[in-house]
From TrEMBL:
Gene3D superfamilies: Fe-S cluster assembly (FSCA)
Protein's name in the database: Aromatic ring hydroxylating protein
Domain MIP18 family-like: 11-82
Amino acid sequence: MSQTDEKRSFKDQAMAVLENVIDPELAVDIVNLGLIYGIDLDDQGLCTVTMTLTIAGCPLTDYLNEAIAEELMAFDEVNEVKINLVWEPAWSIDKMSREAKLELGIH
């Protein structure tokens, strides 16, 4: 397996476990909300999660960061988790999965 395949495989696995991180205000996971923009793992085991929040100043930032780190640190190859919080592109309901929209009653 090439290094690219290993990283893609890790990203898929990481996205799957991040579905366990539920936004308590919306009761939908952060992956289906469309908050995760990218996940990278370097050779030293640093996992960088590029993400946004539904609103600036979200009171759940610390909770979400801790929950994300807890899920990703379960991987043997992850030694550290860094959250790269970005505001561009801005989050909108268009980033949500179909399932998340249905759960929240958005059509």
